[in-house]
UniProtKB/TrEMBL annotation:
This is PfkB family carbohydrate kinase. Keywords: Kinase, Transferase. It comes from the Bacteria. Signal peptide: none annotated. InterPro entries: PfkB_dom (IPR011611), Ribokinase-like (IPR029056). The keyword Manganese does not apply. Residues 5-294 form the Carbohydrate kinase PfkB domain. The keyword Endoplasmic reticulum does not apply. One of its GO terms (molecular function) is kinase activity. Pfam families: PfkB.
Length: 314
């Protein structure tokens, strides 16, 4: 028996969100924002929290500083019953921060990666991997030290008998350099969104991207917003429609919540069609409340939103 269903290796940061800002920032001037929210940010944390709320045993491995933001990060994960034993607090670095300036539905973000850039694959030891059935890595481009040896991490996980998945997320440098041919054979489920997939495969569209990698990849799930998601599995390409939400609060974290729903079923050995359906419903549930975790308080509330808003029975 393993201690955890899923080990999440990912970035951790705090979001400092300014709302109702009176104008736009300008060099040499000062303006006022009427609202401030300081909360746990990061895609990987949204994934881990929501996967835990769906009823799975989740552990997190990541790097933060030894500052007050670090305390907020750890406590927020623990409130969602995510194990933080392997979240490393390093006094050398500051906890990552994203400054979010909200203007209606648009926002300007500035991220200071801090500690997350200094996590290495050596810090994710075999002993840690051995505690979990499944390894999920997210936001690889933000974790520059981890990225260098990420092939080795996935290979080790597979050798130890874990199943594996990755959501690459956006590359702020826009170089999109992942060694796909070395990496994808060790990733059971690869979960980018459509734009990321096109960039990563350096292709014109999703179909030509699949053509390029199909000789060495395993299962590919491409998230496509209101169009739902596409599955490449066993030499077949299928699309699973979204549970369309006409009254979207916002889409922050929809992709991470899709991942949580999909992986929650995948690790139970469920059929891919079912994993896709649950991914799409958890993605849709995410869009009913602002931010990535508000709609995922616990499994009861998740089930109730699914039923009320989308007539979906878990
Ligand atoms: N308007 C919507 N109504 C219902 N479901 C939606 C809507 N928008 C997105 N989704 C669901 O959320 C999933 C993920 O959305 P998206 O393709 O935007 O992922 P993403 O870009 O990775 O998101 P993130 O910003 O969290 O990284 C979709 O596959 C779909 O199931
Ligand atoms: Mg995403």
């Amino acid at each position: 028996m393993k201690e955890f269903d899923v080990l999440v290796v990912g970035e951790l940061n705090v979001d400092v969100i300014l709302d109702n800002i009176q104008g736009f920032p300008e060099i040499g001037k000062e303006i006022i924002a009427d609202e401030l929210t300081i909360t746990l940010g990061s895609s990987s944390a949204i994934f881990a929290s929501n996967l835990s709320s769906l009823g799975n045993k989740v552990a997190f491995a990541g790097k933060i500083g030894n500052d007050s933001f670090a305390k907020l990060v750890k406590e927020s994960l623990q409130n969602k019953k995510v194990d933080t034993t392997h979240v490393i607090s390093s006094p050398q670095y500051s906890t990552g921060v994203t400054m979010v300036m909200n203007y209606d539905m648009d926002r300007a973000n500035v991220t200071f990666p801090g500690a997350m850039e200094h996590m290495t694959v050596e810090e994710v030891t075999d002993a840690i991997l051995n505690k979990a059935k499944h390894l999920h890595v997210s936001s690889i481009f933000l974790q520059t030290s981890l990225k260098k040896d990420v092939v080795q991490l996935f290979k080790r996980a597979k050798d130890l008998g874990l199943t594996t998945s990755m959501d690459p997320q956006w590359d702020p440098s826009e170089n999109w350099d992942l060694q796909l041919q070395d990496l994808l054979p060790h990733i059971d489920v690869f979960l980018p969104n459509a734009t990321e997939f096109i960039h990563i495969t350096k292709s014109m569209d999703v179909n030509s991207g699949i053509e390029k990698i199909k000789s060495f990849c395993n299962t590919i799930v491409v998230k496509d917003g209101e169009n739902g998601a596409h599955l490449w599995e066993n030499n077949e390409f299928k699309t699973a429609p979204a549970f369309l939400n006409e009254e979207v609060a916002d889409c922050i974290g929809a992709g991470d919540s899709f991942d949580a729903g999909f992986i929650s079923e995948y690790i139970k050995g469920k059929a891919y069609e079912h994993c896709m359906e649950v991914g799409n419903i958890t993605g849709a549930i995410n869009t009913t409340a602002s931010g990535g975790t508000a709609a995922f308080e616990n499994f009861e509330t998740i089930k109730s939103i699914a039923k009320k808003r989308f007539s979906y029975q878990f």
